[in-house]
Amino acid sequence: MTDDARDPASEKDETESSASEQVTFSCDECYVYKIPPKRTAMGHRAEQWNVERWIREVRLKVVSQGEACRVVLVDKESDELFAVAPIPSGISIDVVVEPVLDSSRYYVLRVEDTSEGRTRHAFIGIGFRHRPHSSDFSAALYEHRRFLQKKAEAEKRTEAWEIQEQRSPVDYSIHGSITVNVKNTTVPTRKLSDTKTKDVFQALDGSMDIPPPPRPTSTTAPSSATMDEENLDFGDFVSS
Question: Rounded CA gap, 149 and 143, in Å?
Answer without folding.
Answer: 10
